[in-house]
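Sequence, please.
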């Protein structure tokens, strides 16, 4: 997994790559927008829907912690 934060554009891009040369089943990445509500406090949004901290972790980490082939 690669996370790339662009603070000027207020976005975080997340992408996934193959493990051990296996490219089948790589999940699609995405982009979250960041909005600062108070100094030092950032909220994350996906498709203009505010995410809680738990939802943000789930969106980004679920494909890594529970890959589709293990979910069945």
């Amino acid at each position: 997994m690669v996370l790339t934060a662009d603070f000027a554009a207020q976005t975080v891009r997340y992408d996934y790559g193959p493990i051990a040369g296996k490219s089948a089943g790589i999940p699609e990445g995405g982009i979250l927008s960041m909005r600062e509500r108070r100094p030092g406090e950032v909220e994350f949004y996906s498709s203009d829907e505010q995410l809680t901290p738990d939802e943000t972790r789930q969106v980004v980490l679920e494909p890594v912690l529970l890959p589709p082939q293990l979910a069945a």
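The beta strands are 2-6, 11-15, 30-38, 41-46, 49-51.
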